[in-house]
Amino acid sequence: AAQPNLLSEKEERLSKAKKLLLNPQAKFDAESALLLCKTHEFRFGILHLYKQLALYKELLQYHMEKNEYDN
Length: 71
Fold this sequence. Notes:
Layout: H1 2-22, H2 30-39, H3 43-52, H4 56-65
Helix pairs in contact: 2-3, 3-4
């Protein structure tokens, strides 16, 4: 019974993180946020922040490392 609860807690945290990253009024250091996203392997955050920071080389490298060629 504990497993579904853990999953929903994780999904809730990811949802909150997405909202924060997409909020134009949110004040946070993007480079620190990127480090946190990488630490926790938060794909959405990594890709979003690479685009926001115009780190296109890193964005391409991320897709290549994950074998994501058709996106």
